[in-house]
Design brief:
It comes from Azotobacter bryophylli. The chain has 190 residues and is α+β, with helices and mostly antiparallel strands. The protein folds into 2 domains: 144 residues, Adenine-n6-DNA-methyltransferase TaqI, Chain A, domain 2 (Alpha-Beta Complex), CATH 3.90.220.20; 43 residues. 34% of the residues lie in helices and 21% in strands. A 4-stranded antiparallel sheet has the order 2-8-5-6. A 3-stranded mixed sheet has the order 4-3-7, with no helix packed on it. Strand 9 and strand 10 form a beta hairpin. The longest helix is centred in the C-terminal third of the chain and has 41 residues. The relative contact order is 0.18.
Length: 190
């Protein structure tokens, strides 16, 4: 069975995040958390605890992220994607595109993984002189290979294992650095 190739816009709805006027200030009593570009620059995960909260005062209800939505950084050299898994009311700023899968034959985790692949990142057309940006049509036109749901599940499971391996390697490197530092300190004392 061969893999079908489909445009992202045929598999998901794509919208722009909310545009805020003025600076956002943290309000400990706030009812909505705000996802900003700085919150995703370092990793492809949404750390709910680090997001600022605000009190929503706009006349319209906030367009909250829903379980399975994918946020994609719209500006910069890397258009990292992160999957929203959580219960907190979160609004993404206009620095993001929000991809909401709408086809039953595609897993949100798989779509997020595909968008983050280096070859997908290279295919996204960027424009702008100082700050590179992708357009909504460029994101919607991104070609997505669509294997069976079973294959998607296997790819996601494999990706999780690779992620765990990366974390273990990072911890081993940190431990090695600490041991070397300890040995160095011990040798200096002698």
């Amino acid at each position: 069975m061969h893999t079908q190739i489909t445009k992202l816009g045929e598999l998901a709805d794509v919208r722009t995040g909310h545009t805020f006027r003025g600076a956002l200030e943290h309000d400990p009593a706030g009812d909505v958390r705000i996802l900003q570009i700085k919150d995703l620059r370092q990793c492809a995960e949404i750390d709910h605890g680090s997001l600022i909260a605000i009190s929503w005062e706009a006349r319209t209800a906030p367009h909250l992220l829903e379980q399975g939505d994918i946020v994609v950084i719209a500006r910069g050299e890397s258009n990292t994607a992160a999957l929203y898994k959580g219960e907190l009311p979160i609004v993404a700023t206009s620095q993001f595109f929000i991809v909401s899968p709408r086809q039953p034959g595609v897993l949100p985790e798989y779509l997020c993984w595909i968008i983050n692949l280096p070859q997908s990142q290279r295919r996204l057309e960027r424009s702008g002189s100082s700050i590179q940006a992708i357009s909504k049509p460029a994101l919607m036109d991104l070609l997505i290979p669509l294997p069976s749901l079973e294959a998607q599940h296997k790819l996601i499971a494999l990706q999780r294992l690779w992620g765990e391996e990366d974390q273990l390697i990072a911890r081993l490197q940190t431990n090695r650095q600490q041991m070397l530092q300890g040995i160095y300190q011990q040798l200096i004392k002698e």
